[in-house]
Every structure is written in structure tokens, then in C-alpha cells.
Design goal:
Keywords: Membrane, Transmembrane, Transmembrane helix. The protein is of the alpha/beta class and 563 residues long. It contains 17 helices and 9 strands. The termini are close together. The structure holds guanosine-5'-triphosphate and magnesium ion. The site of magnesium ion has 5 residues, from helix 3.
Length: 563
């Protein structure tokens, strides 16, 4: 007897069948539910009665054994086969009515005497039609009662005890339920003692091969009464323990639950999901056009930086080139949707090429394959079906994810503004220098004395010990000759210096802009990855995960019911 009580086992089996819905074979689930229903129904009926069914091929002697056990000629054994077409019940003890109704046996005989052997109170003995009958109705009636009886007594005769119809059709499906199956070799009065022993040994072997090792096998003669005491004792024991009903149901539930456990397959390795996720994300990022967008962010950031920090007089050239981010419809300014309708925002990314699309689909399929490794085909199929729904929604969801990801920096970097101010200051210096030179030119043109123009003396090269060379200063040590200090008038200095510095600052800014653009692209990639991961989780990982979780629950419940 198992430690788990029948009610808990029934609940576990029902639970497993519920989790397996839509995932495992319908016939398997139906038979598990039928067993659970039977357990509930039988559990609500007389616990005092043990239902013993006599089943077997026609002519094996079921009706004869029935009469012998009852001690009365209730059933009519016949010479013409098959004889018994409707089940017949003999019952001992009060309150068997509802149970017989549930069994659907209208022909019933209340027995007044003591229960066949001794002190047990309730027993329902059923004489069934032949199980392998040529008459279909007989077979169906017999099968229904074989399913509902608490204890099954298979009556076989010396001619047909090894029949495939019995072993393949009836005993093998009862595998694992040895404690509720008794196999009786009837008509042993027709055999010599040695023959009977050999036949019983052979029958034991066959029964064990059917998966019923440990099932009791008895030799019997309904005619002479040989072995009848053993059978009666066995029935009494079963009835007295009042456990046959529970034992039968437990055995049936165990078998149904084991079939579910097997159908579930093994649990996939715990870390398989994490390993498969990276590959899935990679394929979805490609499908979503993340590399294209990241490159556009980089190019756009560089373009913006140049527009802000380039040499003011040539900045416009950069603007002639199209804004790569705008081309994809991904400029923040372009992505404003009416309030609450952010779902309307789309990118202008080219629709993923069929190749990329199918790469994403195969990425999803590979993911499912990896995470369902070892899972039964039926369940893997269910997971794949869930993922397939995700695949259909992926292109749109990915596009939306990209469209809603922040790609640009919130505000313009400070150094852009600083450089901009510097650049315009330098341009202003150039302008001032030019104006000054123009005034000087005018003076000279009009032959007027030139106004005093300050000059800037180029500092001596460092290492010479002096920064400023005055006229008439001692000659430098390098060549021993007097070196005229180089003097530049301020207006010229303003023009040339302004131009030179402006270009220099623009060049340095270019380098900084490239570095900044790379950083921004990296940040955008991180955010895009997070968005794609969210889509992958929502459309693929969670649904597939739910399937696997259901598998885990189904398996766990079935394992409990099978324990
Ligand atoms: N010698 C001998 N004959 C038996 C024994 N049991 C039954 N018979 C005979 O075998 C024949 C068939 O017996 P039944 O009891 O009608 O067999 P059944 O299994 O009920 O047959 P169906 O109702 O057709 O399924 C009858 O003629 C019985 O007299 C036995 O132990 N020894
Ligand atoms: Mg009969």
C-alpha cells in the first residue's frame, strides 16, 4: 500500500492532466482523467463492498466458478458458446445498490448466507460476458466492468491459457497492478497432476512477462471444487481488508501517471536557457537592424559634433550630407507621437531582408530546440507552437522597440558650446584683423602717414634664454650672426592666427567628435540591446518558459501520482 492517500493521488493526477492539456496526447490525458474520475466515483460509493469480477474467454468456466464461489446455481453455465451475455452480480451485505447502479449491472442476486468464506461483510461478485467475444456488445460490457472492478479474477482454461488475445489485450494493459489481479487456471480436473503443475508454472511465467509479476496464480476446478478454498480465502482476505478498491484505483492511477511522466520526457538542463539566450538575442538584434542603427547614431553624432564645433566658414558643407539618423526616421524630433499613442511610432528602417527575417526565425527555433533538449516531442512541439506565434509578431515588435529606444544624448555636450564660442571668437578676430588691414590700406592708398601699428615680435625659440627679441639685441649664439627678430603687425596676426587656430581647433574637435560619437554609439547599442531583449523575453522566452514551467508542474504532479 502506498503512503499517499487516494484522494491526494487523484488530485495530483488531475493536476498533471490539466497541465498536460494541449501539450500531451489527448488519448493519454483522457485515460488519466477517466481513472481519476473513476477513483472519485468509486470513492463516493460503498467502501464496505469489494467488487470482484470474474473475467475470461468464453467457455473458460467463469459462470461455473461464480456458482461455485456463491455456493448456489445462480448463473447458467452453458454448452452453447458464448453463454453469458449480460453481467450477473451476486452480493453479500447491505447497501450495495448504488455501487451496482454505478457498475451498471441490473441482474443482481442478494445473497442471504454468510460471505463465501467467513467474516467479511461486503462482497460483490460479478460474472462477466466473455472478454474476447465475437459479440461486440459482450466485449464492451466486459471491458467496462474490468475497468471498474476492485479485484479482477481472470479465469483461463488449459486450452486457451496462453492466448495472445488474453495476454496482449487484457493482461499487459494491467501491467504494474499485480496486487489486484488473480489468474485462475480452471478445469484442472481435466489434467494430470504433473501436467497441471507444469501448466501453472508456465502460466506464472507468462503472467510475469505481462508485467504482472507477483500476481497470484491458482489452479482450480469449478466442477470438483479443487482449489476453491484457496480462491475463497483470497476473496475474503481482499474483502476483509477493504483495500481492494483503493488498491485497484491506486494501481490504475499509478499506471496512468507513469504514462504521463514518460510522455513529459526529461526536464531540460537548468542552465540551457541562459546559454541559448545570448544566441537568440544576437539573431534578433541583427533582424531588428541594430547594427545599422548603431552606425547611424555614430555617424549622426559625428555630424552633429562637426556642425557645432567645425570651422564656422565650412560647417555648411557637412550639412549637405543627409542626416543618417533622420533617414531612418529616428531623430528624436521626428518620433513624437500623439500622447498615449506611442505605439504608432515606427522607424523607417528598411524592412528586414527575408534572409535576416528567416535568420531571426531560425534563431528562435534554435533557441526552442536548445531549451527543450530532452523534453518529449509532444511538449517540445507545444513550446515550438508558442514560439511560432512570437515569430509572427517579432518584426513589428522589434521595429517598435527600436523606434522607442532613446538614441540621442539628452543635451548637447558642454565642450561643443565652448568650442563654438571659441570658433566664432576666432572668426571675429579674423574679421577685426581684416578691417584693420583695410583701414591701413586706405591710409596708404590716400598717401596719408600710416597710423602707428603695434607689432608682435615672434618670441625667440625656447632654449635661447629669452622670449622677446628687441631690435639691436645681441646676436643669437647659433650662427654667430645677428638675427633680426621677426615682427608681425597685429592686424595680420589677428587674420593669420585666427585662421590657423580656427582650423587647428576644428581638427582637434574632429578627433574628439569621433571619440564622442563612438561613445554615444556604444550607449545607443546598450539601450537597443535592452529593448530587443525585452521583446525577446516577452515574445519568445516567457511563452516558451511558461511551457517548460507547465512541463515541470505536469511532471511533478504526475511523479507524485505515480509514486
Ligand atoms: N471439467 C470441467 N468442466 C468445467 C469446469 N468449469 C466449467 N466447466 C464446463 O465448461 C463449460 C463452460 O462453462 P461456463 O461456466 O459456461 O463458461 P463461461 O466462461 O461462463 O462461458 P461464457 O459464459 O460463454 O463466457 C460448461 O460446460 C462447464 O460445465 C471445470 O472446472 N471442469
Ligand atoms: Mg458464462
Amino acid at each position: 500500500m502506498s503512503r499517499l492517500d487516494l484522494a491526494a493521488r487523484t488530485a495530483a493526477l488531475e493536476n498533471a492532466a490539466h497541465e498536460g492539456d494541449g501539450r500531451l496526447a489527448p488519448e493519454l490525458l483522457a485515460s488519466a482523467r477517466a481513472v481519476a474520475d473513476r477513483a472519485r466515483e468509486r470513492g463516493g460509493l460503498s467502501a464496505d463492498h469489494t467488487v470482484v469480477a470474474l473475467a475470461g474467454a468464453t467457455g473458460s468456466g467463469k459462470s461455473s466458478v461464480f456458482n461455485a464461489v456463491a455456493g448456489a446455481d445462480i448463473a447458467v453455465p452453458g454448452v452453447r458458446r458464448p453463454t453469458t451475455s449480460h453481467a450477473l452480480a451476486a452480493y453479500w451485505g447491505q447497501g450495495a445498490g448504488p455501487l451496482l447502479d454505478w457498475l451498471d449491472v441490473p441482474r443482481r442476486h442478494e445473497m442471504s448466507g454468510p460471505v463465501p468464506s467467513g467474516d467479511a461483510t461486503g462482497l460483490v461478485l460479478l460474472d462477466l460476458p466473455d472478454h474476447d467475444s465475437v459479440v461486440v456488445d459482450h466485449r464492451l460490457r466486459a471491458e467496462a466492468l474490468v475497468a471498474r472492478a476492485d479485484l479482477l479474477v481472470w479465469v483461463v482454461d488449459p486450452q486457451k491459457y496462453a492466448d495472445a488475445a488474453l495476454h496482449e489485450g487484457f493482461l499487459k494493459p494491467l501491467a504494474g497492478r499485480a496486487d489486484v489481479v488473480v489468474v485462475v487456471l480452471n478445469q484442472i480436473d481435466r489434467l494430470k497432476a504433473g501436467e497441471a503443475r507444469a501448466m501453472l508454472t508456465d502460466l506464472e511465467r507468462l503472467v510475469a512477462a505481462d508485467g504482472l509479476e507477483g500476481a497470484r496464480v491458482l489452479g482450480l476446478s469449478a466442477t470438483t471444487g479443487q482449489g476453491m478454498d484457496d480462491l475463497r480465502a483470497l476473496l475474503t482476505k481482499a474483502a476483509r481488508r477493504r483495500e481492494a478498491a483503493t488498491a485497484r484505483l491506486v494501481a490504475d492511477e499509478r499506471a496512468a501517471a507513469s504514462a504521463l511522466v514518460e510522455a513529459c520526457g526529461s526536464q531540460p538542463p537548468a542552465r540551457a536557457g541562459e546559454r541559448a539566450r545570448a544566441a537568440l538575442l544576437q539573431s534578433l538584434e541583427d533582424a531588428a537592424g541594430v547594427p545599422t542603427v548603431v552606425e547611424a547614431v555614430r555617424a549622426a553624432a559625428r555630424r552633429d559634433a562637426r556642425a557645432a564645433t567645425g570651422w564656422p566658414l565650412t560647417r555648411w558643407i557637412g550639412r549637405l550630407r543627409r542626416d543618417p539618423l533622420r533617414r531612418l526616421g529616428l531623430r528624436d524630433t521626428e518620433r513624437r507621437a500623439p500622447r498615449g499613442r506611442e505605439d504608432l511610432v515606427r522607424t523607417s528602417l528598411p524592412a528586414p531582408a527575408p534572409a535576416v527575417r528567416s535568420a531571426a526565425a531560425s534563431g528562435v527555433r534554435q533557441y526552442v530546440q536548445k531549451v527543450t533538449d530532452g523534453v518529449s516531442d509532444a511538449w517540445a512541439l507545444a513550446a515550438r507552437a508558442r514560439a511560432q506565434r512570437g515569430i509572427d509578431d517579432l518584426p513589428d515588435a522589434l521595429d517598435r522597440a527600436v523606434a522607442s529606444t532613446r538614441l540621442e544624448a539628452g543635451r548637447r555636450p558642454l565642450w561643443w558650446r565652448a568650442v563654438n564660442v571659441l570658433q566664432w571668437t576666432l572668426i571675429a578676430a579674423v574679421g577685426a584683423g581684416l578691417a584693420w588691414l583695410a583701414v591701413l590700406f586706405l591710409f596708404s592708398y590716400l598717401r596719408l602717414p600710416a597710423p602707428p601699428t603695434p607689432v608682435w615680435t615672434v618670441p625667440a625659440p625656447s632654449g635661447q634664454g629669452t622670449d622677446v627679441v628687441f631690435p639691436g639685441a645681441p646676436p643669437g649664439p647659433s650662427d654667430g650672426l645677428g638675427v633680426d627678430p621677426f615682427q608681425i603687425p597685429w592686424p595680420t596676426l589677428l587674420v593669420l592666427g585666427g585662421l590657423l587656430l580656427g582650423v587647428l581647433v576644428a581638427l582637434v574637435s574632429r578627433v574628439l567628435a569621433a571619440v564622442g560619437a563612438r561613445r554615444r554609439a556604444a550607449a545607443a547599442r546598450r539601450r537597443l540591446r535592452a529593448s530587443v531583449a525585452e521583446v525577446a523575453d516577452r515574445l519568445v522566452r516567457l511563452p516558451v518558459g511558461e511551457e517548460l514551467a507547465a512541463l515541470g508542474r505536469c511532471r511533478a504532479a504526475a511523479t507524485i501520482a505515480a509514486s
